[in-house]
Amino acid sequence: MPPATTRSTPERLSRPQQVAEAIKSWVVANGWSPGHRLPSETALIERFGMAKGTIREAIRILEAQGLVKSRTGPGGGVFVHSVSEERATALLGNYFYFQNLTIDDVYQIRAVLEPELAASLAGQLSERQLAALEDVMTSYREPAGTPEEERAQHLASLRFHALLAEMSGNPLLRFLIRFIANMLADITVSRRLYAQPNRELWASGLDYQSRLLAALRSGDSDAARQILADHMHNAHRLMRVQETVLNQRFLPEGDII
Fold it and tell me: Which CATH architecture has domain 10-80?
C-alpha cells in the first residue's frame, strides 16, 4: 500500500477553494490581465453552479492571495489584481518565520544563484545601472564606528546584491535573490550579527564588490562569476565566525561550549 501523502488534491479542497482554483484557471485561459473586471456574481453563480455563499468565499480566498481586488461604488466590482513583489516576499517570509533558517542555509543558495546572476549581467549593464550600484557602495566606503553604523552597513551591502538582482531579465532569478537577501537582512538584525564589528568582513566585501563592478563593466562574465563565487564563500565563512563569536559572548557566565 503506498504511503499516505499530505499533498492537497482537488478532491480534498473545499468547494470555495475548488471554485477559487477554477476562477484562476479561467482568468489564465481568457488571457485577462490585471485590471480586468470579472463577470458579475450572478454570472459566476451560473457558470460554476455554486451557491452565492460559495462564490463569495472563493472571491475572499482570491483576495487573500492578492489575485483579485474588490471595489465598491460606481464602476466597482471584482478585478484581476497583480501580486506585488513586496506582498509575495512578505507571504513567503511568513512561511519561513518558524523554520529557524541558519547562515549555512542562506549561503548554500546564494553561492549557487548569485555567481550565475553576475555572469549573465557582465557587459549588459548601462553606465547608469553601474553608477546606481556604486552609489550604494558609498554608504560603506569607510568602516563603521558604532554598532548602529555596522548594522546600517550590513543592510546596505545586502541592498547592493538586491539591486544587482533587480537588473536581471529573469524574473524568477530576480525574485529569489532579492528574497534571500531580505531573509539574510532579517537574520542579521534579529540575531544582532552586527553587534560585534568585523573589519575583515567589511573590507573584503567592499573589495569583492569593487572588483565585481570592474568585471561587469568590462563584460568579463567568467571573472564576474568567479569573483562573486569567492565573495559568497568568504562572506559565508566570516558570517559563521560572527555568529559563533556573538553566541559565545552572550552565554551565561560559566557556560562552556
Answer: Orthogonal Bundle (1.10)
Q: Using alpha carbons, select from 131, 139, 150, 254 the residue that is nearest to residue 197.
A: 150
Bridge partners of 180? none
Enumerate the domain spans of the chain. Answer: 10-80, 86-249
Nearest residue to 168 via CA among 224, 88, 229: 224
Place of cell 557556560: 255
Cell output for 156: 546596505
CATH (residue range 86-249) = 1.20.120.530
pTM: 0.73
Beta bridge partners of 70: 78
Residues 86 and 182: beta-carbon distance below 8 Å: no
Name, of 73-77, 167-171, 200-204, 224-228, the range with top average pLDDT: 224-228
